[in-house]
């Protein structure tokens, strides 16, 4: 499949690659320049491959609160909530952001690779909830404008009308006679916005952003950015066989809230894995490299790894078997059968500047 | 895509270049290779004295997002490695033909016959 901006990506000579059934831009000029543009300035990503579901009706909030592990009810209006979506046994189907657009209207944005799986799962949970539930992924394009200068650009262009839109806030806004959904969310750790719009409007916005010096950024830079700030990616830090409690997402599992899918299993669950952040002084950790304890015994695997463009060091997240967690948090990473000492981090590798 | 191909060098299908001086070869990666890889951030090279077989992996180059093996276009022994590259791998992006990686003593100089000339390599790159 192709997004509405496919031809523009080719014209910019982007390196394209397959992602979740879409031909997506992986990089345009340089991963480093693109990632640094987002950290220091402003960059724009075509993420139209992401899925958009709408839940509308009297029970919209109640339904969403029932299917996700995080608390959807007590948050303010016009705010979004990040949450895992779990099965009854607590394993993770996907992670998503649910946006409160109105008292009876919720937008759920899901990972492109999981659109069909999520939609059919959610449909089966509708039961007696009084809601209309629809998959509108085909109707929406999505741009992420990210970086410290993204707010000023959107205000200047008249796309953002309220500079007080908070982090994780969402609003609908009219631009050139079209309704846009603008949220102060993203996947980079920087201040930034995601704009849901029509396929026609996405071409207008893309051209406007580029004309105003936003750097087009590909999925490679996006992956570096999210890893630098320690955000999980489904298929790497999260998958069908583990729970959010195995992957540092305890903060998104609200066991004190009323019944939700997976609650009973998660209440009793003692995690098998712990997600850790590791860096190397020499070498670059990559997905699936073995992680060893100081006795050189394998205790886990790297789930995502890259060179950080900000720190200039190799960085990784890794799932470690909890029973084998070294007390002193001394780890080695096996790279081509050489063992490199890894530094253990409790904080993100880079502190993003989001609101 | 940038693709400079100096005429005095030989090229492999794996996008290594080689400069032949008698029975010694100096080896690096081509402009096409560096441009395809993107920002090169890490290089691992073999120890001096290592004996390499034809097409054996002798090291890696890594960009931010990828790892690529380096394959020896010849059989022979490693005489010298360019350890400067380990400290500043980005040189490979800016000047691929000055960023030599290893010098080898060829054990079978006939290996050179299976390398491409500059014009053949140009056609090869265009066919990819």
Kindly list the characteristics that best describe this protein.
A: alpha+beta, Gyrase A, domain 2, Alpha-Beta Plaits, Elongation Factor Tu (Ef-tu), domain 3, six-stranded mixed β-sheet, B: alpha+beta, OB fold (Dihydrolipoamide Acetyltransferase, E2P), 9 strands
Walk me through what this model shows.
The complex is a heterodimer of chains A (355) and B (128). With 355 residues, chain A is of the alpha+beta class. Chain A has three domains: 6-48 and 140-228, Gyrase A, domain 2; 52-135, Aminomethyltransferase beta-barrel domains (Alpha-Beta Plaits, 2-Layer Sandwich), CATH 3.30.70; 272-344, Aminomethyltransferase beta-barrel domains (Elongation Factor Tu (Ef-tu), domain 3, Beta Barrel). Chain A has eight helices and 19 strands. Chain A has helices spanning 6-11, 31-40, 60-67, 115-124, 150-156, 199-211, 219-228, 263-268; strands at 15-19, 22-27, 43-46, 51-56, 80-86, 92-102, 105-110, 132-135, 141-146, 170-175, 178-183, 192-197, 215-216, 273-280, 290-292, 298-307, 314-321, 331-335, 338-345. In chain A, helix 2 crosses helix 7. Chain A starts with 5 loop residues before the first helix and ends in a 10-residue tail after the last strand. Chain B is α+β, with helices and mostly antiparallel strands and 128 residues long. Chain B is built from four helices and nine strands. In chain B, a hairpin with a 3-residue loop joins strand 6 (57-63) and strand 7. Chain B starts with 9 loop residues before the first strand and ends with a helix. The mean pLDDT of chain B is 94. The A-B interface holds A 15, 26-27, 30-32, 220, 223-224, 283-284, 286, 306-307, 309, 314, 336 and B 38-39, 41-42, 44, 60, 62-65, 67.
């Amino acid at each position: 499949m192709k997004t509405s901006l496919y031809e523009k990506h080719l014209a910019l000579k982007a390196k394209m690659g397959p992602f979740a059934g879409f031909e997506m831009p992986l990089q345009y000029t340089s991963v480093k320049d693109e990632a640094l543009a987002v950290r220091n300035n402003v960059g724009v990503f075509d993420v139209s491959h992401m899925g958009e579901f709408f839940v509308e009706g009297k029970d919209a909030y109640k339904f969403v609160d029932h299917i996700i592990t995080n608390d959807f009810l007590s948050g303010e209006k016009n705010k979004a909530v990040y949450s895992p979506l779990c099965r009854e046994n607590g394993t993770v189907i996907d992670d998503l952001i649910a946006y409160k657009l109105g008292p009876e209207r919720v937008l759920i944005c899901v990972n492109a690779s999981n659109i069909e799986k999520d939609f059919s799962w959610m449909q089966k949970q509708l039961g007696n909830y009084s809601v209309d539930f629809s998959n509108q992924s085909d109707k929406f394009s999505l741009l992420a404008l990210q970086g410290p200068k993204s707010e000023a650009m959107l205000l200047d262009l008249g796309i953002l009308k309220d500079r007080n839109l908070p982090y994780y806030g969402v609003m609908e806004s009219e631009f050139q006679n079209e309704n846009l959904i603008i949220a102060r969310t993203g996947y980079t750790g920087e201040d930034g916005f995601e704009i849901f719009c029509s396929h026609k409007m996405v071409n207008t916005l893309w051209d406007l952003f580029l004309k105003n010096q936003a750097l087009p950024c590909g999925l490679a830079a996006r992956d570096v950015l999210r890893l630098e700030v320690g955000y999980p990616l489904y298929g790497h830090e999260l998958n069908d066989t583990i729970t959010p409690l195995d992957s540092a997402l305890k903060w998104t599992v609200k066991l004190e809230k009323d019944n939700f899918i997976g609650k009973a299993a998660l209440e009793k669950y003692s995690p098998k894995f712990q997600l850790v952040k590791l860096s190397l002084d020499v070498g670059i950790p990559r997905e699936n490299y073995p992680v060893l304890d100081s006795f050189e015994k394998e205790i886990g695997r790297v789930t995502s790894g890259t060179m950080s463009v900000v720190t200039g060091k190799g960085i990784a997240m890794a799932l470690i078997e909890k029973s084998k967690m070294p007390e002193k948090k001394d780890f080695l990473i096996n790279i081509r059968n050489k063992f490199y000492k890894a530094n253990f981090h409790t904080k993100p590798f880079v502190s993003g500047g989001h609101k | 895509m940038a693709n400079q191909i100096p005429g005095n060098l030989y090229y492999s299908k794996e996008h290594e270049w080689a400069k032949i001086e008698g029975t010694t070869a100096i080896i690096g990666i081509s402009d096409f290779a560096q441009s395809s890889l993107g920002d090169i951030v890490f290089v691992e090279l073999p120890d001096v004295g290592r004996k390499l077989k034809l097409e054996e992996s002798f090291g890696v180059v890594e960009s931010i997002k990828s790892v690529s093996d380096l394959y020896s276009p010849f059989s022979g022994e490693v005489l010298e490695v360019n350890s400067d590259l380990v400290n500043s791998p980005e040189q490979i992006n800016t000047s691929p033909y000055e960023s030599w990686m290893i010098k080898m003593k060829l054990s079978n100089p006939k290996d050179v016959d299976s390398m491409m000339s500059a014009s053949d390599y140009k056609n090869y790159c265009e066919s990819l």
